[in-house]
C-alpha cells in the first residue's frame, strides 16, 4: 500500500501565508475543498487533527482500551518499526527518529485514527489498525 491519497486535499485547505490569515474570502475559497467527500481504504475522512493537522479517519466501531488490545497495538506497532507512546491516547512513533505516524483516539462517540499523510505505509497501517483493534 502507499501514502495517503488525501495529501493534496489537505494542503489545499492550509493557510498558504500569514498575509491571508485574516482574509475571510480566502478562507471560504479554501474550505470549499471540503465539499468533496474523502475516504481511504473505505474509511471516511472526518477531519483534521486540531494541533497536528493529520487527517482523521472514522473506524466503524466504538473502542475501549483493554490490556489485550493495547498489547495487540504494541505488537502491530513493532511490525511497522514503531513504538506506542501513551498520552491522552496512544500514538505510534517510529523507532528511528521518534516521528509520529499515527494515533488512535477512543474518547468520542466513535474510534478515530490520525495518520501522517506522507508516511509511506499509512494506508496499510490504517487497514491493519482497524482489523487489529476491532472488538470481538
Describe this structure in words.
- With 136 residues, the chain is of the alpha+beta class.
- The protein has one domain.
- Helices cover 28% and strands 24% of the residues.
- Helix 3 packs antiparallel against helix 4.
- The two termini are 26 Å apart.
What's this entry about, in short?
A 7-stranded antiparallel beta sheet has the order 1-2-3-7-6-5-4, covered by helices on one side.
For the structure shown, list the relevant keywords:
136 residues, single chain, alpha+beta, 24% strand
Strands ordered across the widest β-sheet: 1-2-3-7-6-5-4
How many structural domains does the protein architecture include?
A: 1
Assembly annotation? single chain
Structural class call reads alpha+beta
Q: Indicate the low-confidence ranges by residue numbers.
A: none
Mean pLDDT: 90
Order of helices and strands: HHEEEHEEEEH
Helical amount = 25-40%
| Biggest sheet record | 7 strands, antiparallel
Q: How many distinct beta strands?
A: 7
Number of helices: 4
Beta-sheet strand percentage? 15-25%
- What is the straight-line distance between the termini? 26 Å
Radius of gyration: 16 Å
Shape: globular
List the helices and strands and how they pair.
Blueprint: H1 7-11, H2 24-31, E1 39-40, E2 43-48, E3 55-58, H3 67-79, E4 82-86, E5 90-94, E6 100-105, E7 112-115, H4 122-133
Antiparallel strand pairs: 1-2, 2-3, 3-7, 4-5, 5-6, 6-7
Helix pairs in contact: 3-4
